[in-house]
Amino acid sequence: MNSPPTPTLELRGVSKNFGSVQALQEVDLEVRDGEVMALVGDNGAGKSTLIKCVAGIYSIDGGEILFEGRQVTIHGPKDAARLGIEVVYQDLALCDNLDVVQNMYLGREEHDALFRLKESPMEQKTAETLASLAVTTISSVRQPVATLSGGQRQSVAVARAVMWNNRVVFLDEPTAALGVAQTRQVLALVKRLAEQGLAVVYVSHNLVDIFEVANRITVLRLGRNVGVFEKDKTTQQEIVQTIIAGAPAPEELEIVT
Amino acid sequence: MSSAAPAEVAAAAEDTSLAGILRSRWEALRAGDVGSLPVIFGLIAITIFFTSKVGIFFSAVNFSNLIQQMAGTTVIAIGVVFVLLIGEIDLSIGFVSGFAGVVVAELQIPGSSHDYPGLVAIFAALAVGAAIGAFQGSFIAFLGVPSFVVTLAGLLIWQGAILKALGTQGVIGIQDHQINDIANYVLTKNWGWAVAIVFTVGYAAAVFGTIFSRRRAGLPSGNIILSTARVGFYGALAFAAVAVCNHSRGVPLVGLIVLFLVVLGGYVAGRTTFGRHVYAVGGNAEAARRAGINVKLIKILVFSISGAMAAMGGIIFASRLNSVDLTAGGSTILLDAISAAVIGGVSLFGGRGRVSGALFGGLIIGMIANGIDLVGYTDAVKFITTGVILLAAVTLDTVARRRQAASGR
After folding, report:
1. pLDDT at residue B103 in the model
2. Which residues of chain A lie closer than 8 angstroms to B218, CB-CB?
3. pTM listed for this prediction
4. Is ipTM > 0.90 here?
5. Alpha helix (H) ranges present in B31-146?
6. CATH fold for domain B31-185+252-406
7. Which residues pair with residue B323 across a beta bridge?
8. Which residue of A99, A109, A120 is in closest CB contact with B10?
């Protein structure tokens, strides 16, 4: 893989404490343009905390965050958005009563000097973005999101992340609530994001999905890094061992004996 | 009306032939989206019932009376729509309206140290209403105190303030012409016709302007025949209303004020970023917050709209009586205004409904009150009837919501 020398987003030694609980201890993570980096770990491994640190919902207690090699501070969601970091949460954060266009532009509506909404350009841009991601199952962008299927809703949430020229997209368990066909739809969408040059961090439990879309895999365990793997040079079994027991090789022997 | 509801736009965008639109409306109906049908049937049923009891119900004089009777409640209900859209409630509106009436009356007392022109008093009362709303809203937005409790406290506080301000004399008369004209002035016949023309032209311009700008952008623009029919219908309605009013005394100024505020409110809710954010907060406040919308600010602004609209309603009531007394803001004003919004199709669960609902709901509440008075039934009958209709409207809302959830909407 001929990745560029500088990661788009890099976390170095990031720590986060909640009182006496150390949720993250000197965690490293990097992701490059055009790459899907999977982030895996058991419940309580610190995946959600890490996402919230990057999204600006939590501030970090130690370590540094680098964006294209420069050190940056993220104090709130607006800082993250300004850098071009977008998080698609598990619950999608869509307004069911609003239509697709309205959700795509939520909080960033185009308007004139009198705060009148410019509906036509917003509708056009939404249709274009969905088309560029080959999301063809949504028949009308003026449909309320409540009428969409789970996969379509996920597509809208992902497309929203793409539309704003974001550089890094975090996807939190995007297929957790989906059926087989819809999971395929979303995985294809994730691949297209990377093809369009975005850096994608894909957080999931599902190793089958991860091995389908990811280029590399970072494993967290109890708030610590326990390994980064190239997808092509590892196996699902190795990842499972790492998730459960920490470092793969010696533990594996222990279990075998 | 002028505000674009999310559901209707979606339906129109898919199939723009008349049959296609009818089909998608029918499907939406089966899925639990009853739209404005209950209101239309309600208006017809009420008209038939009361006309059969007393013929004068269906007369030009009574029509123009009805406009003046329903105006205050309808204006307050506009504010209620905004509060319901963000999924909150405002129980203080009744006495805020009464308090605004006291303010407007106090500020025009001839010969006192605060004898201001009527318009100054009116704007001062509106500002007081908005400030009260913002004050109450800040408890809800910043401290997270439930709106039910905050505004319930407000209900008591402003009732107390009215009693305190009016003191032992118990009544303040209003002699200022500008204030009294608000509810009592009627337009000359020609001005009435001019209003109908301006309304029709303005409405047509809004509808066709939207169609042409969407055409130019290459977007689906709905069915032009249906849009033309709609413009024709509302235009004819405007001319018919003016004709009926002119047959008795003329178009009441207060009717125009109500119409203006409904159109303005519909515009703010449907066509501006603020309105979009109001719907977003009501639909999913957490999603709105994550999208960078200042949810707290939206809540405070909405409660201040509610306060200002309540104040306008109170000014209309005071103007109609040419005075305020100790009963100002009491009686059924609060429940009538909330009922009007809910009957007009605004969901108590937030995020669904239109500002024009306040007008239709206000019309139904106003017609029932007016009809019951004409027939000579007691207040007992009026309360029971209004209560039953409110219960029916809320039940319809809840059931519709459940059916929509069941059919994947």
Report:
1. 95
2. 124
3. 0.86
4. no
5. 37-53, 60-85, 93-106, 118-142
6. ABC transporter involved in vitamin B12 uptake, BtuC (1.10.3470)
7. B173
8. A99
